[in-house]
Amino acid sequence: MKLFIYLGFTGFLCLQSCTSVTENPQTTRLPTQTVPTQSNSPQPTPSPDKNAELQLVMVIDANKGWSNIAFSPDGKTIASGNKNSFSNNTDIWDVGTGKKIRALGGHPAAIFSVTFSPDGKILVSTGALRKEVVKLWDVNTGSLIHTLDTEDVAPVASVVTSVAFSPDSKTLALPGYDESILLWNVTTGKQIRSLGGNPNNPVDTQTPIAFSPDGKILASDSSDNAIKLMDVKTGLLLYTLKGHLKYIDEIVFSPDGQTIASASADNTIKLWNVKRGILIRTLTGHSYSIVSESVMSGVISVAFSPDGKILASGAYDNTIKLWDMATGAEIRTIKGHRGGVNSVVFSPDGKLLASGSYDGTIKIWRLP
Description:
Helix content is about 0%, strand content about 40%. The chain has about 375 residues and is mainly beta. The chain folds into 2 domains: about 75-240, YVTN repeat-like/Quinoprotein amine dehydrogenase (Methylamine Dehydrogenase, Chain H); about 245-340.
């Protein structure tokens, strides 16, 4: 997500089949359904079936504004970051009940991303204003571990919309103000080194970043709408992936590390071969929608299922789409949000899909 802000429908939304849960007015769920017990091991995803039933099992009112979300590695909680006129909190929700477990404050401005460490011990929230832009929280206690002093050491973008943990949870990657990637020690909260960078382009960028599953490659975008793949150990540029016509909102690696999916404001999703650095295919299907004078349309978020068979995408057209990775075919379109879908994420066991939207809600869907 770039600096554009979409002020769409806000407030609570529920399908007609939902009923209110009296002990928590922020949450609704189907009365006959319960969220499945989560497993740490991904379960094989059934072969995609367009006719199979998809169930909405829960709607969480995550306050007015947009909602960026992340599943915890154990699948028991969801973190959401949002910005409204009353608070700039990072909230943690119980997936089974929809109850808010904890609200983490501390950001003076909008929260643009939330990310769990792979070991589940730390939650990172990012926002705006350099001195307060990146915060690390202890998941168990809710206490603040670090506020990274990014302004004095090496400036980062004034708005950070993405960070990435290394697979061992020891290193955090952030975007630099000159298209560099800054690596930080999670334990000490100190910067280790930087990768890449373009001194001729010292401008703020809201760069999506992703570590490969083996931790050897870092992917990020650049001002020319390309994806750069860098060797983490040597800092060498491996490939520059060109093809998108507008800025890139999200970059994700497939679970096996062989494919990258990128979501762009050009209203496409592109799939790239990591080893060869070439385009595999382009996915299209989200509707063209005028959001504002400066933002016309776009795919905002993408996520792979844990087994890599399905790709989910969320866009400004208020829909979620599921794609068959084997064929590139669209499996289904999921409707229900009344604002752009800016965050999609699978549960670790692959049974649930959560979506966060500009309508201020988080929806949890049970996959067929």
